[in-house]
């Protein structure tokens, strides 16, 4: 089952949000999320359901479909690469998967810049610092605190709980586009990147999540076009068929770095290469 699900040809738009919730649970099973967290099926499913309900349905891009797509891309990278599968601990895999799923929770639409310019409540609460990313992390943990039935971290040891939380915070904060270049440079500079060190594994995790957050460029042209249309609608950009320079300057270096760091992820970029004719 998972073999069919964890493919880059998967078309998110063919499913309802309820069906996508069920698929998330099946992917949880593949990575033994409930076993790692020592929780029963019901709690795992309840968590997914509550997360799904927290994503706004009124915004065209940062909704549950986007959350699913990012979760799915990250899961596919993790599933495809033995290097990733064998070197991350069970708790680290959980942190990566849950961070992907919750990274834009309750996203209000638009961007941090817009929130700051408006002087919105969120911008004031988070002092203009990664406003929406901070908000999504905070809402994820508040949801679990206020709803015991959906608190998937309630059964594991305190130390493991702390570590998952620490990883999730760093992973989600790194999805702020303002720091993309900085994050990539940090990884590039590290010539002796090794999976033996926790901080290095986290760096690679950040790269996987960033690549997944912009993973729609690895999909078919038809799916990409839909995402582009939704992004432009939400952010108020002009939709242009000619987005090659954005792909060349922003997306390509990130994917190249991921393939260089984890060569086994290369098959996930087959469609990207076919569509854009860039070398990875
Ligand atoms: Zn996102």
TrEMBL record:
Boundaries of every PDEase domain copy: 1-280
InterPro entries to which the protein is assigned, alphabetical: HD/PDEase_dom, PDEase, PDEase_catalytic_dom, PDEase_catalytic_dom_sf
Pfam families in the record: PDEase_I
The entry's keywords: Hydrolase, Metal-binding
Entries under SUPFAM superfamilies matching the protein: HD-domain/PDEase-like
Keyword Ribosomal protein in record: no
The protein, known as: Camp-specific 3
Organism of this sequence: Anaeramoeba flamelloides
